[in-house]
Amino acid sequence: xxxxxxxxxxxxxxxxxxxxxxxxxxxxxxxxxxxxxxxxxxxxxxxxxxxxxxxxxxxxxxxxxxxxxxxxxxxxxxxxxxxxxxxxxxxxxxxxxxxxxxxxxxxxxxxxxxxxxxxxxxxxxxxxxxxxxxxxxxxxxxxxxxxxxxxxxxxxxxxxxxxxxxxxxxxxxxxxxxxxxxxxxxxxxxxxxxxxxxxxxxxxxxxxxxxxxxxxxxxxxxxxxxxxxxxxxxxxxxxxxxxxxxxxxxxxxxxxxxxxxxxxxxxxxxxxxxxxxxxxxxxxxxxxxxxxxxxxxxxxxxxxxxxxxxxxxxxxxxxxxxxxxxxxxxxxxxxxxxxxxxxxxxxxxxxxxxxxxxxxxxxxxxxxxxxxxxxxxxxxxxxxxxxxxxxxxxxxxxxxxxxxxxxxxxxxxxxxxxxxxxxxxxxxxxxxxxxxxxxxxxxxxxxxxxxxxxxxxxxxxxxxxxxxxxxxxxxxxxxxxxxxxxxxxxxxxxxxxxxxxxxxxxxxxxxxxxxxxxxxxxxxxxxxxxxxxxxxxxxxxxxxxxxxxxxxxxxxxxxxxxxxxxxxxxxxxxxxxxxxxxxx
Length: 584
Prior knowledge:
Layout (H helix, E strand, L loop, with lengths): L2 H6 L34 H23 L2 H7 L5 H17 L1 H11 L1 H22 L15 H30 L7 H36 L1 H21 L13 H14 L45 H5 L11 H18 L2 H7 L5 H7 L1 E2 L1 E2 L2 E2 L7 H26 L7 H32 L10 E4 L4 H25 L5 H34 L16 H25 L4 E2 L2 E2 L1
Parallel strand pairs: 1-4
Antiparallel strand pairs: 2-3, 5-6
Helix pairs in contact: 2-7, 2-8, 2-9, 3-4, 4-7, 4-18, 5-6, 5-7, 5-18, 6-7, 6-9, 7-18, 8-9, 8-15, 13-18, 13-19, 15-17, 16-17, 16-19, 17-18
């Protein structure tokens, strides 16, 4: 496509020996020194090793995050609202740093970036374990918490966020690199890849919220968090042991530079008319292309101002070489358009992440006040996230093996339903989930009032914690639809040269959603305490029997309904990426 314009430009001077030419699957080994061997590398064999790395990262994350609010409240003596905000801020940072990790992965290689940040992650867990075990650094019972103790703990916690930021976006895209999209069989396997990816990491969550959380509660923080550190150390060894099995794609340079080049080139040619004939726009042939593994994208009809960057001007014809800040290929222009197009979808998924943030904060606080005995066994409130995981592990295989083939016969879509339809269903379920949480909390407050427990927050409310099961189970169903759908959508719709950025966009919705949740909590505490003038008016306080987190849940329900309406409009406007003449 657009070969005429490419021929008009004299000779393209990109270096042909910057990388070794890959074989037909467009991949090399992790050192980029030789093409990967299709029969002996990549595919599910390599994927399971990478899965193991992410599973163990999830084990450590949930071992820390599931009970973090309780640790801050009990050990660092923070109040409930501050603890909830600090958890949300840490979670937000942990899911925002992946934008940096994605930039490094797409710029310098995913395997290299993943290797470095995996070591940082392991180091942070060693520090976290030290903060609860080494005398002088760990907090002591009935003793005030020093700034050194809290400072070291938060340093280790945010170092963990930095490590996770390099792992999360690159581990998904690196695992995706193990499948050749030009091979029909491998391409079909890749469509199921993210479904089984979530099942795998959910299995890690099961171990974390059962065994490790139980160890924390029963034997202490040292054993619980030390166990998570040992698991990640094992995963690091396993990951590096599979080095010879991995395929990788050559980095195409800084994704931000590629975007900036299009914006600058289009601005320089602001007064140039875009021709109707696509053949008059610049697009090098596969042989001329600097990065032949990046598939060509046909010109789309939206955001035509950006097309000016691909118009071959008289000045371009007079130049002896292609200047990337003056003339960009159609594919590079379309990459920028893709990023612009996905932003409304990104924006309308933030409220879901704000709702899901309550799982590790207010849902946990609810469970702490309720009857948690199952026979002689007392279930830790933090272990209730197990029901989210079990729901995912149950629903996901049914979705992949039963629902997708059934829906495929009706819709003709290879995925059964479109990615945006999958996300939309998840948003509906999310709204129902938080509404049910509000109803359950209303009942819990009523039971507390009937038993005279309004001013006895340390007493157990005689109401089974299993009343929380529906909101936890629906949160798991949400993950199957909206979280996997988002991950699939942002990865799939991202340009080939920016796959890690695509994964980071999904993760950043969790980040910004956590910050929004934190902001909402602060605003609610500020306005309700001022208006109520006391504990009874405050929606969120340390005495949950006097608080009204049910009102907060209803607020999230209303925001979710409004957001769902906006999402439907954005989804109807969205145009899916095309490669050649095939819509992805």
